[in-house]
Structure formats: C-alpha cells, structure tokens
Amino acid sequence: MPATPSFSCSNLKCILSRAVICLVIISIFTPQGIRSLLKKSSQSQSHSADKHTIEEISAKKLEALVEEFFQDGYPQFYEGDLKDEESVLKWLQEQQDSDGDVIELVTAKRLKHMLKDDDIDSIAVFFYDAENCDQCDEILAELENIDDDTDKHDIHFVKCEDESYAYELGLTKEQLPALVYFEDDEEPSIYDDDLLNEEEVLAWLIEQKTEETIANVNRNMLMRLIDEKEYLAVLFFKDDDEESDEIVEELEKIDDECEGFEIEFVKIDDPLIAKKYGIRNPPGLVYFRHGKPMKFTGDLLNEEEVLDWLTKPENMELSDKVEKVNRKMLERLMGKNTDLAVLFYSKDNCPECVIALQELEKIDDEADEAGIKIVKVDDDELAKEMGVFQLPGLVFFRNSDDDDDNNNDDDDDDDGPKVFSGKVKS
Description:
alpha/beta, disordered N terminus, 5-stranded mixed sheet, 426 residues
C-alpha cells in the first residue's frame, strides 16, 4: 500500500485543524458546518482554523467522497452521518485518543470496499460475535501484538463484527471467531489453528503473503466453488497428519502452474465431505470439471504427476459440451491434436457467439469421431493474433506429423491456421 502521511498533533484543536485539510467530505457538509464543528471542539479555547483555508476547499473537491483520517499510515474511515456534527466530533476524538496498536474495526460495507481496492493486496480479517464470545477480548489482545508486524509485510489487519457478512463468505456460526486471509483475486483462506498463539498466527499470515499456498476452505465455501468454478482441484486432508502435511507441501509447488490453466486449487479438512466424494481415508485429491468429480489414483507426493493429470486435455474436457480453454491450454492442445478447431468468442454482449457455440455443440460428437477436437477461447487479443478480428470466429489448425511433412514438401502453406469466413452453423 502506498505510504500515507502521519500527523503529530498534540491536542484536539490541532488535530481537527489538520483533519479539515485531510478530510474528503461529501458536498452536504458545507464549509459553514465545518467551522461550526471546529468552534464546538475548541470549547474553552479559541479555534484557530483558517477561514480562507476552509473556503478554498472547493465544492468540486468535496463532491461525493468519504472523509478519512490518517492514523499509523492507514486511513481510518468515518461511516456515520456527516450532517451529525456531534458524532463526527466524537469519532475524531476517538481516533485521536485511540491506541495505534488497536486492530481497526470495519463494517461489512467498508470491508467489501477494501477487498475491491487495487491498492490493498492482502487483508487479514478477524470475524467475531462481540456479544457472544467470551474469548474474543483475549484473542484480540494477542492479535494486536502482531499488528505492527503484519503492517511491515503490507498485510492490512482488521476486525469485523458483521456475522451476516461472515456467513455470506461461507463461515458458519460454529466457526466464529475466525481469521480469514484475502489476497487479490485468490480464494480466501481460513486459519485453522490456535488464535491465541500470536506467533503461529503471524507465521501463517507471512506464509500466505510470501509463499505459494493452497487456500484452506470450509464446507460452505467448497460447495460454492464447485458450483462456480469450471476447473477445481480439491485436496481432502487431515489436520495434524504428517502424510497430509508432506502432500500439501509438494502440491503447493504446482499451485502457480494450475492457475495458468485456470484450475482453482483448494484444500479442506472435512471427513464427511471427503467420504461423499470417494475419499474414505484422507488425504486424497478430487478434480471437479464443471461440477463433475474425478478422483486421482496416482502418487500425491509426485507433484509433476498430479499436474500432468490435472492438465491432460482428456481430463479437462466433458463429452457433452465444447470445452473452454485459455492461451496456455490451447498451446498444449496444439501440440497433442493433429486437427483442432477453435471458436474465438466473447461471453459478453455477443448474441452471435451464443448461436455459434450452440451450433458447434451439435456437431461436437461427430467431430470427435472424425478426429477433430473443438474448443472455445474467450481471448480477444489471441483471436487477433490468429487473424480473427470479428467475433465469433472459427479457426482450424492442422499440425502435420513428420511423415506428412516428408510426403508434402510442397504443401507447407496448408499447415497454417485457416480462418473460416462463413457463418458458424451446423
């Protein structure tokens, strides 16, 4: 996160004067209202806010934004009613008086905003029920000891009391309190050890931030992923199990490569769900393709074997539909298939693409019987590289083997990609 300014005001009058400059306030909070706020804050002291400074803050700069007060390098956001001057004053006083090591309390709305913020890469969130958690104060006291350390690793540490949002993310009431780590577009990962052991928590967070790790999910999160993800690899493991630990360590080496093939990789410690998908004695690996499971029967300690199995075209495809592939998957297919038909399309705002795809799915089985594999690619840049400038577009690739090359030296041009110029229909 970019560095933000810090302030060293020693009294409330000073911090309020500085806050006026730093606050970004929506237009309903007028300069007159700010002056009134400053006047009230001074009480027995004459306020020293510069009238001209306030009035120079143009309405354009104040328009439709939320104010923020900087503390320890991170912005603290006020989410109350900006027209309630007493509430604003009380909030500013709380920020001035608060201990810098206290983990910031955020609402669900604020947290959602943070998760979408491109300037915040990593967030650790402590979800808890403040009214029904006897141990939470003790846990928070421990976690606040490592707040500065997480800052050094650019991990923004916050706490959230919104149970409904926790449930929305897939956490259950029984799992609260819970620590969840979010990073960019990755699946959130749940910490499953002792929250009172601050050193273990810190080590886990740093590992999530600095190393390739497989996200740890629960049952609700897994069910959502099975429904949403086209390709999902799930390692069913046992906690405090030496074999499981070894396998996780090996498979984390291929997590990045799986991402290149758009395969989401997660792990879960849930014997009932493991049994449902054929893993009676974890650890075991199940591959979901469009929600349909396939069990791995090879050596889980051989990460290369696992990666090859996950990315085999025959394992990634389903017989009843044209498979979606990305650039990396297409390159692999081109090396394995002699005849390959590729539909370049867009899933957004392209009715013709929907029709073309429906037509190709009607002939997919017949094409397979003729030795022609059909796939689809949603990549406008790659389409242009292949000579397709208007979607949908169909391109045929024929990769001749060595014997064909020897017998057809004069037909080299026939081996390049061919762009179909007509309408795609069966």
